[in-house]
């Protein structure tokens, strides 16, 4: 086990390159199950979620050759091997194996997924979609059993706007007989990316990126080449780090339109931002203003940036209120920020931050992926040494985070934890 160490206070300057989007990658890889020949995906992030999905692809008989950026996946010899336990518990997106295996084999057994603990994360809308397409779905001892004689297109209205359910239903529907219409669909850019891959494989999908998606089932999907979109959450994380400590930082390989809600909030705080086709320049201002933020579905402010943004707000003058309407309990980072001298209280689904506070280095623990990002940003701002445990959460979603931040001037490194430290963290 490793920890991240940061000596805070260094100004950030230079260019940081964003990797491919985690939340696309983890759907694109399972989507390849639906093809009958090899698929090449370029620009994948080198994160543990991707590597674990690669292992799962191999567990069901596929091949996954990954060089840290490009993966060649051959689905031709895959079989509907049950995956009730094991690696499926290590990430959230293993739920996409349900839709993809159901779509190809008309049956699947997949354990309930893991991923970040953000309060309840039901998958009832995924199951409602599979059932509407004709699958019988049961939950037996924590694994979902899916079976269908045949899949038939259906009209499905999602009760809640869900990224995972929208993509999973698309995966199950692309090879179903007839037309599927998903209403109240999620509109995140990752959904368009997955629809683009499926279309290049031969699927017939219209409307991805709007709240009505129409899919006309086809019999066969074939291999192709696909280039993934940049990670808007990783880009946002570096933009927030730059707003916290940056002289002038250029975020490279970003689609500025994907982070418009963040750009608007940073400008409201007084941060200077310039955008071009695929870069964003962020220059900070020592006197930042407090702002209120509410997380919403895309194109609203993303819940995945709520935690890192909260760290930044400790530096702003006045009182900020951050409300998470997607995950009302996504506040496990707050106690750790308080340990670092932040003045924050949580009321219901809101965090109330009073600033500015000069954060102080401390030993803290990341409880989940974006809590980890929040603590890294806090460590960059803090006086003295911060030590962050729980690095395995950060490794789920950030490719070379330490190297990228060191490359723009941060004093940050990884170190092996001693047995005693591992014990202390486990018991905390
Ligand atoms: C792998 C991946 O892409 N993860 C992202 C995805 O997660 P995920 O796809 O799991 O999140 P959803 O969009 O499904 O969840 C949105 C909301 O709907 C609720 N819900 C969802 C499904 C369901 O069947 N029933 C239900 O009630 C959830 O509890 C949550 O309150 O979108 C989240 C919201 O943008 C992001 O935080 C995650 O980073
Ligand atoms: C919540 C997240 O991931 P996951 O859904 O994979 O747990 C995230 O990326 O912030």
Automatic annotation (TrEMBL):
Active site (UniProt): 116
Signal sequence annotation: none
Entry EC no(s): 2.5.1.7
Matching Gene3D superfamilies: Enolpyruvate transferase domain
Binding site for UDP-N-acetyl-alpha-D-glucosamine: 92, 121-125, 304, 326
InterPro entries listed in its UniProt record: Enolpyruvate_Tfrase_dom, Enolpyruvate_Tfrase_sf, MurA_subfamily, RNA3'P_cycl/enolpyr_Trfase_a/b, UDP_GlcNAc_COvinyl_MurA
Residues binding phosphoenolpyruvate: 22-23
Origin superkingdom: Bacteria
UniProt keyword Cell cycle present: yes
UniProt-listed Pfam families: EPSP_synthase (PF00275)
GO cellular component: cytoplasm
Assigned keywords, A-Z: Cell cycle, Cell division, Cell shape, Cell wall biogenesis/degradation, Cytoplasm, Peptidoglycan synthesis, Pyruvate, Transferase
Enzyme class, broadest EC rank: transferase
Stretches assigned to the Enolpyruvate transferase domain: 8-405
Catalysed reactions, semicolon-separated: phosphoenolpyruvate + UDP-N-acetyl-alpha-D-glucosamine = UDP-N-acetyl-3-O-(1-carboxyvinyl)-alpha-D-glucosamine + phosphate
Record PTM 2-(S-cysteinyl)pyruvic acid O-phosphothioketal, positions in chain: 116
Gene Ontology molecular function: UDP-N-acetylglucosamine 1-carboxyvinyltransferase activity
GO BP term, example: regulation of cell shape
Subcellular location(s) per record: Cytoplasm
Pathway connected to this protein: Cell wall biogenesis; peptidoglycan biosynthesis
Biological function: Cell wall formation. Adds enolpyruvyl to UDP-N-acetylglucosamine.
Record-stated family: Belongs to the EPSP synthase family. MurA subfamily.
PANTHER family, alphabetized: UDP-N-ACETYLGLUCOSAMINE 1-CARBOXYVINYLTRANSFERASE, UDP-N-ACETYLGLUCOSAMINE 1-CARBOXYVINYLTRANSFERASE 2
NCBIfam families in UniProt: murA, PRK09369.1, PRK12830.1
Protein name: UDP-N-acetylglucosamine 1-carboxyvinyltransferase
Species, as recorded: Parageobacillus thermoglucosidasius
